[in-house]
Amino acid sequence: MRNEITLQELALSLNLSISTVSKSLNDSPEISVKTKSRVKELALLKRYIPNSMAQSLKGKQSKTIGVVIPNIFSKFFSESLHAIENKANERGFRTIICFSNDSIDKEAECIEKLIKSRVDGIILAVSEESQYKKINEHIEKVLSYKIPLVMLDHLEDTISCDKVGLNETLLAEEATMNLFNLGYRNVAFLAQNPSTNKAESQKQGYLDAIKRKDGKKQILSFGSSEVCHQKLHKLIHSEKIDAVIVNKLPLTIFGTKNCSKSVFSIPENVHVLSLSNLGDKEHLSTAYDAYDRLGEEQGDIAVDTLLDRIEGVLSEEFVKFELKGRLNCKSNSAQIQKLSI
Question: What SMART domains does this protein map onto (predicted)?
């Protein structure tokens, strides 16, 4: 359990009244610049956190955890969040949910809000922007306050904390090997935001499988859907591609539409395999296979790990859970029709 300094202790250390310290921290014009500077310097040094929850007393748990995820629109995050809330509630904890929208600034804002709310711990799916820009100071801030942190699915290797995710290298290697075992020989890998840890690990798994099968590596890396469209369209027309692995859910639809534009039938000519969960909308117009990223299972493990860490059940050594994704076959070649986009 982390030690937190109170407003009263700050006041005693500075030989000031609690009222003066409070007003200084709130930039009251009634207090001199010199006094405000003294108060803020000590507050920063002692890592004082303004208490926005009156019922939280020093040395006691708030019985609240924070969750920061990119959004609620994906099947994975809706499943994991549902599991987290249910398990936390069962164990007597409330949940504060924040959405980063895969933005560093928004993610930092969420973390700051949770720290000020005196949460007992945080579950974080690191934003893509934080990963590809390699900016982690706002995440390190959580650890500097001795707040337990568990990373969920979107992991950052440089941060020391508990982590729950899939073995991304194994996932992509298995996906590629499965396609080769089904008879596909020209397998391309599409990686959106390739500098994230997840994409880099998946790329390595793909390359490992290609090497084992003595295949030809064909990797498309890009940031936007428009660039993906151009690169994939060119690849299909210049090379014989019979299978495509995509690393992110939105690309599943996009890749399929591009393939159909190139007079390929899906999946008879170009087999599409996604390393992300399927969402409801993706069932409407195309067929492809996808790996279930086990949102419910990851959420369950993440919240149990966090609450065990908060309650002192775990040893000091951090734990990392690497699950194996589950392949869901959605394609049925006998029923696939050519799409005209």
Answer: HTH_LACI
The residue range of the domain holding 22 is 7-50
Residue 2 lies in a domain: no
Identify which of 59, 147, 75, 153 has the alpha carbon closest to the alpha carbon of residue 111.
Answer: 147
How far is residue 95's CA from residue 213's CA, in Å, rounded to a whole number? 47
Residues 172 and 273 in one domain: yes
Count of structural domains, the chain? 3
Both 267 and 304 in one domain: the answer is: no
Nearest-CA neighbor of 139 among 120, 115, 171?
Answer: 115
d(CA 231, CA 219) in angstroms, rounded, equals 10
The reply to whether 331 falls in a domain is no
Q: Is residue 335 part of a domain?
A: no
How are beta strands 326-329 and 289-292 bridged, if at all? antiparallel
Matching residue, tokens 């202790």 = 9
pTM of the model: 0.75
Contact partners, residue 296, CB within 8 Å, separation at least 6? 79, 80, 82, 83
Alpha-carbon distance of 240 to 180, in angstroms, equals 15
Q: Are residues 157 and 81 in the same domain?
A: yes
The region, left, alpha or beta by phi > 0 then psi within -120 to 50, assigned to residue 59 is left
User: Of 155, 122, 127, which Cα lies nearest the Cα of 141?
Assistant: 122
Lookup result for tokens 């859970």:
321
